[in-house]
Give the backbone structure.
Amino acid sequence: MKNDRIFSDRITDVPRSFIREILKVALNPNVISFAGGLPNRDLFPVDALKEAACRVFENQGRDVLQYACSEGHGGLREYVSARYREKADLDIPVDNILITNGSQQGLDLLGKTLVNEGDAVVIEEPGYLGAIQAFSLYRPTFLPVPVSLEGMDPDALRMARSAGRPKLMYTVPNFQNPSGITYSDQNRMELARILEGTDTLLIEDDPYGDLRFSGRARTSFKHLLPDNTVLLGSFSKSLVPGLRLGWIAAPSALMQKLITAKQATDLRTSHFTQSMVCEYLCNNDADEHIRMICDVYGRQCRAMLAGMKRHFPSEVSYIEPEGGMFVWAELPRHMAAMDLFDLAVKDGVIFVPGDPFYVRGSRHSTLRLNFSCTDVETIDVGIRRLGTAIRKLMGRPTEQCNAVEI
Ligand SMILES: Cc1ncc(COP(=O)(O)O)c(C=O)c1O
């Protein structure tokens, strides 16, 4: 394109996914990557999904290839509703569930339906880059509120509220991406008290909630703020991401608008993939599959934490997650994770520096390490390389480590 004026202001304002750029380096086989955010492909139930697909064709034939209703596959919506009842003691009627192309589409539809230019939106700091991107298209004013070990900072939320009367508050309260933090029950109750009686809608995005390998489940915001909470869910982490299936559970009035937005966007999510997943869920034990994922991720996470304890200088702190796919680490404040990245690449290991997860500031000292796609032996080698790079950044003597060809 010769002229940049052709692009809308909307798209020009959206931050590019820096992570995609980093992942190009990960293609080098000599590099150990903790940079991705992908589920472990070795755990995908390929044979069972293949069987489900064949059964769908046998049983439904041409009908499964036809257009279908915008709200989504009835059986799949019933499954989601029943699972909320069984696992979280939540009563979410089927009519309040909209199947989407991943929860990422849920974020876009919520932005489309609710956000006018300049509207205040509370987001976590650090926060999920995909949410920052999705909402940015609707040009809100972001109000970043820090999260730490217990969850979101209540005082900072009070300040954000009085500064901007936020329309939305976006949270990932279980094994947050990027920090791995789980909000405590006490923190959830305090945040709910702050929002109670206001017109701020809370979005609880929970793609990782099933992936708990230690500790106990916490109370959903839907119990605490039943009328003002929208739930986002996904089959990406508990089954496979490639079929692009997620959902929104929303109050009825919002639901009608979301369906209109969904129709305007893509009419509906693929009827075939929904039928296939529904068939899979009817004939397989989803909980057993999830237990297997948790078992593997738990081992990988423990290997990463043990490696950090062994190989990192004591000044580097990190958060031990109870589930999910990420460990969040912090260098001493004056050090930039971006500088560490340049050294680490040369030593054959990559991660995501914290910067893309913040809407303000730069040269942050934090970094995100993904453990779901790397086996425990490789995790130890990668963390040792990273420890060496950190020592180099600190100007300290390093363990012997051969530079890697990249
Ligand atoms: C917090 C969070 N929300 C939403 C998504 C999008 O997931 P999907 O669209 O695959 O359901 C992701 C993906 O990594 C995520 O980390």
In short: The radius of gyration is 22 Å. Residues 286-311 form the longest helix (26 residues). Residues 196 and 225 are 7 Å apart (CA to CA). The pocket of pyridoxal-5'-phosphate is lined by residues 37, 102-104, 128, 130, 172, 177, 205, 207, 234, 236, 241, 246 (CB under 6 Å).
